[in-house]
Structures are given as structure tokens and as C-alpha cells.
Amino acid sequence: MSEVIDELVEREYAFGFHSDIETEYVPKGLSEEVVRLISAKKEEPEWLLEWRLAAFRHFMTMTEPTWGNVHHAPIDYQDMYYWAAPKPKGPAPKSLDEVDPEIRATFDKLGISLAEQERLSGVAVDAIIDSVSVATTFKAKLAEVGVIFCSFSEAVREHPELVRAHLGTVVPPRDNFFAALNSAVFSDGSFCYIPAGVACPMELSTYFRINAKESGQFERTLIVAEEGSTVSYLEGCTAPMRDENQLHAAVVELIAKDDASIKYSTVQNWYPGDAEGKGGIYNFVTKRGRAGARAKISWTQVETGSAITWKYPSVILQGDDSVGEFYSVAVSTNLQQADTGTKMIHIGRNTSSTIVSKGISAGRAQNTYRGQVKVLRSAVGARNHTRCDSLLIGSECGAHTFPYVEVKNDSAAVEHEASTSKISEDQLFYCRQRGLTEEDATSMIVNGFCREVFDELPMEYAVEAQALMRLSLEGAVG
Amino acid sequence: MLSIRNLTASVGDKQILKGLDLELPAGEVHAIMGPNGAGKSTLSNVLAGRDGYEVSGSATLDGVDLLELEPEQRAAKGLFLAFQYPVEIPGVGNMYFLRTALNAVRRERGEAEVSAVDFLKLAREHMARLEMDPAFLSRSVNEGFSGGEKKRNEILQMSLLEPRLAVLDETDSGLDIDALRVVATGVDGLRNPNRSMLIITHYPRLLEYVKPDKVHVLTDGRITRTGDHSLAHELEEQGYTPATAGTAS
Amino acid sequence: MSAVATSDADLVERLIAGATGTTPRAERGRAWLAANGLPTERDEAWRYTPVRDITAALATAVAAGTEATGVTRDLVDELAGDLGGPRLVLINGALAPELSDLTDRGAGLAGLWVGGGDELRARGSGGPYTGTAEPADGFQALNWVAGVDAAVVLIEAGNAIDAPIHVVHLATPGQMVALSHPRTVIKVGAGGRAQVVESFVGIDATADGRAITNSSTRIVVDDDAELTYQRVLNEPDTTLHIGRVGVVQRTRSQLHATAVATGGAVVRTAVHVNLTGERARADLGGLYLPTGHQRHDNVITVDHSASYCESNQNFTGIVGDHGRGSFSGHVIVRPGTVGTDANQSNPNLVLASTAQADTRPWLEIFADDVKCAHGATVGRLDEEAAFYLRSRGIPAAQARAMLVAAFASTALDRLSPDTLRERVASVVEVRTADTTANLETPS
After folding, report:
1. C-alpha to C-alpha distance for B249 and B239, rounded to whole angstroms
2. Inter-chain contact A410–C353, Cβ cutoff 8 Å?
3. B136: which DSSP letter?
4. Which segments within A147-250 are labelled E, that is strand?
5. I want to staple A401 with a disulfide (CB 3.0 to 4.6 A). Which of A66, A349, B225, C363 is the partner?
6. CB–CB of B75 and A435 under 8 A?
7. What percent of chain C has pLDDT over 90?
């Protein structure tokens, strides 16, 4: 085993190319002026500008949180661009055919062929480069059943009442440092609205791409599932290989009204930095959903990228009998740091939550699960089960498990179990005896270790996730 | 075929195999019997290449010294070990595992890989012979299998991988009488002139179904006695002690 | 570390000014306290300790007197029991020789030295009182500055002491909010073996008086030595107790430690075990039982800084009424170590809808050759089991009491000698009787 680990080679990041797209920036740095400029560029209504400014003013009073188990040089919030966008080469494209060919080529290279998606796969895609949405597919078809799926900017223009009624209701602008920053400067993102009783007829997907240099990406996603509706949503993300760190501070808000169901899947593959820890995305993300009565919110995440990941997709189980789920695979290799987990806040009666977290550390990476299960006095009959396993590959990495379980109710049943170990020598030997190479055996065992989580992903992404996992570990194992 | 010369193995300060010699010609089935702690499982582990042993001597399969090879290379040369305690591998589908193993071995032999569809057909044929429910293919490797199911799964793998040399480590342990019959018949059905088998066992009951060409007694790290099939019965009646005493003194 | 909060700055200044310690260690404590102050609830390790309640009480506290006026042997027997072996009794942190059984019971035992702080100085012992360690937190720093004496138990290398050695800390607040800083030092020399019981008890406070106990126990278990350490906290329900047990274990040493908290308004038990020698084993367990409005907080850390060590944490929480019980277990496995085996388990039983249980079983692992697992549960009594017992004719209240006792038994069974176990078991029974009787009939 050790020889194989010694052969540690720099893991190839397959999405590290940079596209030559002409980019427009607002001046570097963060100020009220910049916030106004962003809002003006997007031709936003007054109320949204005021909302941003309130967030900005509050942000300026806050300090960066230090409780995460991650370490990085101080971030200079004045030394980055808060707005970067592919420069339009004419009026906004009316159809995919009009989208800048260079942008389309970028997504083709990423395996997200916008045209092909539209023709073949039956998945609606909102493609976002840097700060703006460049294309959304399948809009017309979705509109037939009343589903709205568009860029956030378009939603502000076309459906201001829906945005205004829900924006910031799950993650308030003052929620935390990065959420406040996002609220002040968010650029674009996706908006989904599923009308009451509608089962969204296809997977919705947003693909995020950071392309510009020295820029942060601050997108905002808002999904509103009206009573009795269902939707499955997937986000993917990549970025070019660059030596400097780039900040990604997104906010995702999910609102599942009574009897609604939202399934939110993430395959996060931002550039993780090189083998020496140079460069990579700082991924500081706030994701939270609120579930009404009998509603269900399910988060599934496969986190393989980013130099630093700091995210806790959470569920506020407000309605009686609501259900929250969190399925996570976090892989960190080389010098990556991941501090990720969830919060399940039980408020309603007979609410139940499930947490399954699989952490894999290799190289010199540090991988932390941090999760909170809180059962309030009102949550009579609440249930939680948490299973949290960590796998270590190599002697220089770390795996940390920091659960917080707080129960104020005698009718609750909460179970937490966890384990940490290295990959089993017995399993490796068994596979190798049957003829598998050590690398194949490791990959197979690790994929098996993550099976429960992969099984939660929509089919086509489960395959992608496994391939990604293998790619990630190639750097670490052989 | 398999030729073991002066094989020693130790763990830390403790020597377990103390100069073991064994010749196993092609097509023959030999049994190795011996009391607990004699080194039977160590022999199978050392042949298959498990870490943790200090090894000297030689063990050649078709002239190639196994001891120089990685476990997967030994498998590619045609060595198959049926484990005494097959490990569970959660989340890894049995069918996926078997097909990957089969294709790894086939690649090594220069044979074409088997497609998922062909494999399924193949696996079902083999499973039918072992009276296995095809549902096993969709379960995780050995996970939640009963003792008998695990052993059957081992023999299924042996049957699919078509090894040149099969080492069966206590394959009969933990089996009830019906499972023993199925497993043993399965093993016996895999005998052929190009395949040798080394059956390591504590009890002679498996040997009722798979009649060995020779029986070796392993005591204290060496082969201390060799005989034909009747030796197994003698051991059953008299235990290992007299046999050991007879040769050692 | 937290900066000194402005509102607490005066308090810290006053506490330092009132403390008289002049040893190098006291000086280090003084400097540390002046620089860092007392912890707050924002410090992760103090998240579940009602620090504000403690600092509020400290604001009006005075140093407890050390006279044993009115305390009799019978009273000590009644509060803490007589285990038959050597017994040290300390009043508000100072050794009371007239209440202790040292020479008559202890002198006969070769290789055992027991006494007050003078004993330690006389023995010139290396070990826990020397060295340049920094205090772990503001309260320990305060203990270093303000403690007046210590209970000292030294077992010389190669000696096995069979009789349980009993250290009794008695708090007598009188009419005041009386602050004391009991200290205990236990060292088991190489190859030695001993059993030490540390009891914390108090005299029921008067209307105006209550005790604040800020205790520190330091333990060294040397190479191949074995220590059974039992900590029994059964103080009056007005007492605030901040306690810290710091353990250093050397090569192949073994520690079996049990902490049981039943009394006190607030009881914080911090146990920090550093496994510094290879193949050391630490087996830690305990029971906490906050009822009424009690708060019991347990902060248990095992630091695997050497290879092939094994540790177990098995703490049981039973919370009733408006009580709140917390467990923060922490296993740290240091880089470069191999062959670590660590387990944590924390089952919690919640007996009332107003009670609260918190659990944080943490693993922090910087090496790959480890086998670590933890499990924690929070739930109510198994109603099916209760029904089963009732169907056999056992009245509901009794059935539930039996099940509560069964839940507590994992921890109680760790206690020895029998007299101690029975003593603690009866306290547990009385404490849970009221709260189980109040259980609603299941719907």
C-alpha cells in the first residue's frame, strides 16, 4: 500500500482549461458603489438595490468566521472582482443558436453540450459563466406545465413578485458572513418555481463555471416548490486551473411548501488547486431549505473539488411530518480541506431526518464532518438517524467528525453512529487475490463505501460521480 | 505444476512454517490436514501473497516463483484462493465485482473481456450448478451472506475464474450437511487434468466428496506425513497426535 | 482563547488579587489568567456549561475558610462513606488531619504516601506539580493561583495497594457564597497498582450560603502501572462545581476511571487523558443524572499521542425534570501514531419533556492506522420493555424505575468496592424515583 501511495502523482484536473471569452468587469474591490453598479448593470428594481445595500452595510460590521476546521491565508475582500461577465457580442441571444460559439464550445468541452442537452438528454440546463447566466434550455417545454426555470436576473425582471416574496426568507441576508456578502453582490443564479400540484417533468440542472481571473462567483439559487409539487434539481461546477485562489460564496434557498418535495443534488468539482496546494477555489456556501407540513427536502452532494469547502446544506423541519435528508460524499486529496455537513432543525411534530456522510481523505488533506441535529421542544416524536463514516488513505491525512446533537424533547429518538478507519487490508487483499490491481481494488472499495450516497443521485449523475471519484483518487492511490 | 521448497514463514519472532516441501502435479488434488495452529492458513496466505509474513524458500507455479509476485499477479498466473473467512465489501455489487475480476484475469491471459450481458448469462449457468439464487448477483460482495452462502460464492468465483491452481482454505467449515454437499459437488465438478487443487482442511468430511490423490499431514510448520485417501480416515479415528508421534520420533 | 470580556475583567482582577499562591506554578496561573481570563460559552469546550451562572456567583463569592468547625467523623461517614482504607479528608481544599485516617491505616502499607501538600513537598516528587505546563483554562489557572493545599497520594514504583484510598473533599460554605479550590495529586510509580476514590460532598447550604468548588485533580500513571480512579460527585443541589482531571499515562499503563455525578446545581467534569507512552490503555466511563434544574456537563478528551494505545469512553446520561445533561467526548489521534483503537459511546435517557440532552462525540484523527468508532443515542424509556414488565404484574412506576436502573447499571457496575457501588446506586434510585413517577402514561 505504502509504495503505491508514495507514487502519489499530481492529480489531473480535467476541467482546468480557460476559455478565451471577452470579459467585462466592474472595478476591483467592494464598496457601496460596486453594489450599486452591479444592481444597475442588472437593471434591478429599487427594492432589490435596497436589499443589497442593507446586506452590504451589515456585512461591513461582520468578521469572517473562524470556527471551521480550515486554514487559509487571509482573504483580501478588496482585491477581487465582484462582477465578471462574458461581454455580449450583440443583443441577448434569443435561442441557443445565438449563444456565443466560444461559450458553447466551453460547455461542450465540459461535457455539457447545451444543444445536445436540449435534443437528447431531457435535462433542462441553466448555464452560468462567472457572474451571468448564458443559456437556459427547455424553457418553453417547462412553461407548458407552469414551471418557471430561468436565470435569477430574468426572474427578477419577469417574476419580481415571486422573487420578492421568497428571497432571503430561508437564508436571511444577515445569516452569516458569506451569506451577507452574497446578498450584497450576488450576480446571477437560477430560479425555479414549481406550481402547486405539479411534478416537474424533467430534471433541472444548473451548471456553474468560473472563467474570469481574480473574480469571485456569488450566485444565488432560489427554488420554490408550491404545495404538493415535486422537483429534482442538480448543480455542477468547474473552474480553470489558476495559481491564485478564487472565492465562491453562493447561497441556495429551498422552499418546499406543504406536501412538496425537493431533491437537490450537487456534484461539486471546482478546481482544487495543485498538488502543492497552490490555487483552487474557496467554496464558502450557504444552503438551506425549509420544509412545510409533510414536505420533503433531500440534499445529496458529491464534493470532490475546491481547495476549501465550507458548506452545510441544512433543513428546517418546520411543518409537522416533514422529512429532511442529507447524503454526502466528500473526497479530499493533496492539500484540500473540506469542512462540510448539515443541520437538521426539528420544529414540527413527527419530523424525521436522515444523515449519511462518507468522508474520504487522502494525501495530506483534512476532511471534517460537522453536523448538528437539533430537536426543539415542539418537535414531539422527532426522529433522526445519522451515519457518518470516514476512510483514510495514507498516513498524512486527517479525518474529523464533529457532531452536535441537542435534544430538548423526551419523545425524540436520535441515533448517531460513526466510524473512522483506513481502507481495510482484508478487502484489498481479497480483491487483489481475484486479480484486481491495487488501484482498481481501492477504487472499487471506495465506491462501495459511497454507494448509499451515489444511489441517491439521479442515474446519469451517479455514473458521473463514480468516474469523478475515480479520477480524484487516481492522484492519491497510484 | 506447484512446487514448494523449504518454505518458511514467520510473523515477528514467531516462526510458523518451518521448511515445508510439497509437490502438486497438474490435475491432482491434494489435501493438507493438520491440527489447529499447525500453519495451514498461513500456508494459504503465503501462497496468495498476504502481507505481514516474513517468507523464505520458494513456491513455483508452472516454473514461476509466486513469492516474487504481487497478489493480483499470482491471481493472473492462475492461483485462486477460496478464503476461510471471505470478507464483506459493502456497496460493491457481487456481479460487478465478479465481472471485474474475471476481466482482469482474462486481460492477463490475453483473452477478450466479457460484456455485461454475456457475463450475466455465464454467471447464471455457473450459479445454477451451485444451486445459487441469481439474486446473489445484485447483492454486495458477501455482505449479509450466511456462512454457507459465502462459501458458495467462493466456489462460484472459482468456477468463473477457471484457475490453474485452487487453494481451498477450510472451505467445509461452517457448512451444514446440505451446503457441504452442494459446495463439495461443485468443487469436484471443477476437477480437470489442467487444474490442481490444494484442499486445506481440519476435518475429512469434504474429502468424502472430493477424493484427494494424496493427503499430507501438516504439523508444526512441516509436512510430517503423506499418504493416500485412507490417511484421512485414519486421522479421523486416531487424531493427529499418533500420526505426528509416529513420524516425529 | 477568548479575550477577557470587559464585564469579567474586574472579576478576574479581583480573583487574582484575592489569591495568595506564590509558587512558580501559581505565578504561571496568575499570568495566564490575567492574559486570558475566564472561558465563555462561546468557547467550544464550554458550549454546554452555564458559565454565566458561575461567573455571576463568583462575583459575590469569598474564599472559603478552612477550619473544620463542627465537622465530625460521623458526618464524613454519612456523606461520603467509609471504604475501610486510608482516608484523606479536606475541608474547603485544606487537609483536616483530625478527620483523616493516615498513619493508622496508611502507615502499614509499604510504598504508599498520603497526606497534604506538605507531603508532596517533603517527597520532592517530580511529576505533576513540577514542569512548565500551562493551565488548560481560566478556572484551572485560578485553581493554581488560589488553591491552599492538596490531597496527595503517591504509590512508589513496584507497589500494589489493595485497600481503596479515599479522598474526601467536603465543602462547608456556611452563610456565604464560598469559593474553594480543592486539589488532588495522584501518582502511581512504575509497575505500581492502586485504587483511589475521590468524593466531593458538602454540607447543605443555608439560605444565603452555597459552595463554588473549583477542583483540579492531576494524575500520573507511570510505565506498567495501573490505576482505578473513581470520582463521585454528590454535592448539595446548590453547589457549583467546575472540575478538571488531568491524566498523563506512560508506556503500557492502564487507567480505569469512572465519574458519577448526581448532585450539584452545576457540575462540569472535564477529564483530559494524554496517552504519552505506547500501548497505554484508558477505560473511561461514567454516569450523570441531572434532575430538578441541575446542569451536568462532561467534557472528556483522550489524546492519543503514542502508538498502539487503546481508549474507551462510555458515559451514560439520564436527564429528568428540567435538567440538562451534556457530553462532549473528544478523541484526538496525533500524526505519526499507529495501531490506535478508540471508542466512544454515549447513550442518553430523557425522562421528561422539559429535560435536555446534548451529545458531541468527536473524533479528530490525523493518522490512518486507526480503528475509531462512536455511537450516541438520545431517547426515552423503551415503552415496550415497560409494557412487558407490566404485563408480568409489575406496577408501572416500578417497571420504569427498574428500566432506569438498568440503563444506569453499565456505569454503576464499574464502581467498587461494593459499599461504594451500593451507596451510589441508592442515590441514583432516589434521584430517579421522583422523576420516573412523574412519567406520563404513554399515549
Report:
1. 17
2. yes
3. G
4. 148-151, 190-194, 204-209, 220-225, 230-238, 245-248
5. C363
6. yes
7. 66
Using one digit for the tens of pLDDT, what is the confidence trace for C230-280?
A: 999 999 999 999 999 999 999 999 999 999 999 999 999 999 999 999 999
Chain C positions in Cβ-Cβ contact with residue A418 (cut-off 8 Å)? 361, 363, 373-375
> Which regions of A8-79 does DSSP assign to beta strands (E)?
23-25
Q: What is the mean pLDDT of residues C30-41?
A: 91
Contacts of B71 in chain A (CB under 8 A): 429, 432-433
- Determine the length of chain C: 443
Burial class (CB in 10 A: 0-12, 13-18, 19+), B202: middle
Q: Does B114 touch chain A (CB under 8 A)?
A: no
C97-106 residue pLDDT tens: 889 887 655 5
3-class DSSP assignment, residue C340: strand
B9-39 pLDDT, tens per residue? 999 899 999 999 999 999 999 999 988 888 9
For the segment A47-60, the average pLDDT, to the nearest whole number, is 94
How far away is chain A from the Cα of B116, in angstroms, using its nearest Cα?
A: 16
Q: What span, in angstroms and rounded, lies between the C-alpha atoms of A310 and A179? A: 12
Q: How high is the ipTM of this complex?
A: 0.87
A402 touches A372 (CB < 8 A): no
Give every residue of chain B whose pLDDT is below 70, as ranges.
Answer: 241-249
- Closest A-chain CA to B163: A434
Closest CA–CA distance from residue A139 to any residue of chain C (Å): 47
Nearest to B72 among A425, A437, A447 (CB): A437
- Retrieve residue A295's grid coordinates: 414536505
- Let me know: does B136 contact B163? Beta carbons within 8 Å: no
Say whether A400 and C360 touch across the interface (CB within 8 A). no
Q: What is the pTM of this model?
A: 0.86
Q: How far apart are the first and last CA of chain B?
A: 32
The grid coordinates listed for B21 are 516441501
DSSP annotation of B195: B
* A–C CB contacts, 8 A cutoff, strictly below: 116
